[in-house]
Give the backbone structure.
Amino acid sequence: MKEYKTVTQIAGPLVFVEGVSDVAYGEIVEITLPSGERKRGQVLDTQRGIAVVQVFGSTAGINVSDTRVKFLGETMKLGVSTEMLGRVFNGLGEPRDSGPAIVPEKRLDINGAPINPYSRDEPRDFIQTGISTIDGMNTLVRGQKLPIFSGSGLPHNALAVQIARQAKVASSKEDEKFAVVFAAIGITNEEALFFMRDFEKTGALERAVLFLNLADDPSVERIITPRLALTTAEYLAYEKDMHVLVIITDMTNYCEALREIASAREEVPGRRGYPGYMYTDLSTIYERAGRIKGKKGTVTQLSILTMPGDDITHPIADLTGYITEGQIVLGRDLHRKNIYPPVDVLPCLSRLMNLGIGKDRTREDHRGVADQLYAAYATGRDLRSLAAVVGEEALSATDKLYLKFADVFEERFIRQGSHEDRSIEQTLDLGWELLGMLPEAELKRVKKEFIEKYGKRFRK
């Protein structure tokens, strides 16, 4: 461990140290202030004998003449243990509840170990969230990374805790263990209290690990928090054989922290001021979801981001869509109608849905019901626009049925209570009940045998 007294510049959360040698990217640093106070940091960049250190915390009290910097020769590690279940931590992995310190079973690098693509197994099987628009039409599959695209003021936090509370592995195997790792990035104290109270009140905290990074915490913590959550998830999944759902909110705050640090380093900005390497950086988070051959456990990721200005082409949403396997989109029009959860199913997509549904996983009619509901709702939405121009009286009788279907679909299928947990059977039966509004000749996306088996009892 080498110690230097050669700080040359302090810029925002960054400290520049010159004359260094044998310093590695990601190495942990101990900074001793003139007052004797100690802070920790991490090497962000090193070249030509200059190391750029990002400080965990405020840089107040650090000066260029008397501050000592010691490079510890190791990357940041998190002490992990099954004792973490039921506990709440801050953005640096330190307990923020009243519980005792964690006695770690292992210390793991928070950046994770690279996974050989050959060792990856394809995602499969079904995770039931209890939300009809997700389970029925955009199914979440074990090992998948599926983001939720939201907007400012939409109830994504309420949806996040509902999924964390209700999510379960739909399996007949009793020995399969399920856990939730919840990471909140850049949230307010009010939001932190909401998350903690909801998890404690509903009992969901017993099988969950919470990492809460507050808005007034240093921006560099926002870079670390999701990596702590994923390190915990990988330990529980690959070493303790658990199926782990990781929920991260809000990735927009993470990207804003990336932009802030890049600006402090005076890097050449990319699109809308975000660093050009943001795609690569986001992939180091999203790609940590998956299944590994020979391992019983899985890591599934549900990341939430708020689109600035509801712009789905914004760099954060755009790059996230490239890396992940679909998206769940929350609609402002549905929210204005007071419909919760306001999931707009038309722009939603789960690319791996077919790997998690079917006869042995959900039900044999699942694919057809989902396709028929989507087509009927899309037709109804189109006819709303047409009716606004030509008037409803100009529509045919069948068109009026589709128009009514769209309204009922929103009121009964999309709308559900914040504590309403629907099983996949209830969701599919509700789908058949709604399809009973349409003439049988219009049901072109479901097999006739399924109409006879599942749909006849709901037809008028």
